[in-house]
Fold this protein.
Amino acid sequence: MKTESTGSLVVVGTGITVSGQMTLITESLLKTADIVLSVVTESALINLQMINSNVVCLRNLYEQGKSRALTYQKMTQRIVDEVKSGKKVVAAFYGHPGVFVNPSHVAIKQLKSEGYSAEMLPGISAEDCLVADLGLDPSHYGCQSYEATQFLLRQYTLDPHMMQIIWQIGSIADFTHNKHRTSHPGLTLLRDELLKYFSPSHKIIIYEASTIPIAAPRIEYLELRDLAAVIPKPITTMVIPSKGLPEFDMKTMTKLKLTPAIFEQQLFG
């Protein structure tokens, strides 16, 4: 347990774009931190350095061909060490600090178990941008969300009546930091698995959120049959719109004294 140190940790998200997506609370914490440990894009790093003069970039812990798990361990250790040295630490991560961010969760859990103050604040994630850019409301059809490699290796039950979001289709079965990957055989496997639920002509969307305000997001519409021809980045996301809502359960509808017309009018206007 902690005895003397007064170090603390707040984990924040910088959003997807370079600026404009940080909350006022996040910006205030960044200004008053003793040290900011960052895992953000190059342009976002410059923005952080304008807010706080003591920003340390942890992105250099990534190495070509090196296991990402080892990199995450080093990031976690650096965060924990700075807190234990007595500093008021803010760890700033790209997007939402709790989505696809292993070190944030591990560091908070470890520090809390040892009696330190550690918390996470929400940030704008790629999924938030996706909903806004594509105009798809996940509450309308329901939504299922998977990491691409997990989806292929686990026996998930996919509901084609729901919108599907499959993350990181450019990193299937790649557990290293690989900036130069050119072959993506996992896309063929992913396509073949999805063809069990959708027709070859079912429309899908290839999506990448914009990281700078003046650039448009990547939004490509194509048929599922053509997925293997896509050239993805590690951050590329695939969205599969619903094939349509399922039929109503009329027994439950009757018990609740509803009709399909009344339900749809109240829910969707």
Notes: The chain has a mean pLDDT of 91. The chain has two domains: 8-120, 126-240. The longest helix spans residues 68-84.
